[in-house]
């Protein structure tokens, strides 16, 4: 029974992600989520007390829906992570819905910077490793750079969503790195980095 409950909860999250991704929070109907998940109203409300709670859970599940690329911690793994995320945002409905709901928070009626802080922590860990390996310029502040990178990424992916439905997102993130590397990494380190969406995807398997 416990395993069945876990599977049902995941079905609900995936169905909700599809609906939230397609039309946003306000247009989403609980009845549509139930239909796609193939469950009853009682089953849905057993796991989630309200549409708002369901949306918040989807938003906070975005990090769990992505497996980070392999490789030693440091600047290259950070680059590969952001490029993999760009690919995932093209196909991963749970990630896309979580990102959309995070952007729509004020309109929805809750305020939670947890998803942004979670990605900032992921980026910070790689930047900390990069600093210890001498891959960052002197004076680069890891904490501030991690937060800045989350902000830049959020803006770039949103622009890409509006302009091309994210078809060009991997290339836009590659552009971001081509220019950012000039400011944060010594020239010899920047020259060693591979900024290639296809290579990052292949490395992730």
Automatic annotation (TrEMBL):
Keywords, comma-separated and alphabetical: Aminotransferase, DNA-binding, Transcription, Transcription regulation, Transferase
Domain HTH tetR-type: 6-66
Superkingdom classification of source: Bacteria
Ranges annotated as DNA-binding: 29-48
Stored PROSITE patterns: HTH_TETR_2 (PS50977)
Molecular function as annotated in GO: DNA-binding transcription factor activity; transaminase activity; transcription cis-regulatory region binding
UniProt xrefs under PANTHER family: HTH-TYPE TRANSCRIPTIONAL REGULATOR BETI, HTH-TYPE TRANSCRIPTIONAL REGULATOR RUTR
The protein's name in its UniProt record: Branched-chain amino acid aminotransferase
Natural source organism: Streptomyces nanshensis
């Amino acid at each position: 029974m416990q395993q069945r409950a876990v599977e049902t909860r995941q079905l609900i999250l995936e169905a909700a992600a599809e609906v939230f991704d397609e039309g946003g929070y306000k247009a989403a109907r609980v009845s549509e989520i139930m239909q796609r998940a193939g469950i009853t109203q009682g089953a849905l409300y057993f796991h989630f007390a309200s549409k708002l709670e369901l949306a918040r859970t989807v938003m906070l599940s975005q990090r769990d829906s992505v497996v980070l690329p392999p490789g030693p911690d440091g600047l290259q793994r950070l680059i590969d992570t952001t490029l993999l995320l760009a690919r995932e945002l093209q196909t991963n409905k749970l990630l896309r819905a979580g990102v959309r709901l995070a952007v729509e928070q004020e309109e929805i009626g809750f305020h939670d910077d947890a998803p942004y802080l979670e990605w900032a922590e992921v980026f910070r860990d790689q930047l900390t490793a990069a600093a210890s390996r001498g891959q960052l310029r002197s004076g680069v502040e890891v904490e501030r750079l991690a937060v800045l990178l989350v902000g830049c990424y959020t803006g770039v992916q949103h622009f890409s969503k509006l302009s091309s439905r994210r078809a060009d997102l991997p290339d836009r993130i590659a552009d971001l790195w081509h220019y950012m590397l000039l400011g944060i990494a010594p020239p010899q380190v920047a020259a060693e980095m591979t900024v290639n969406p296809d290579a990052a995807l292949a490395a992730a398997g």
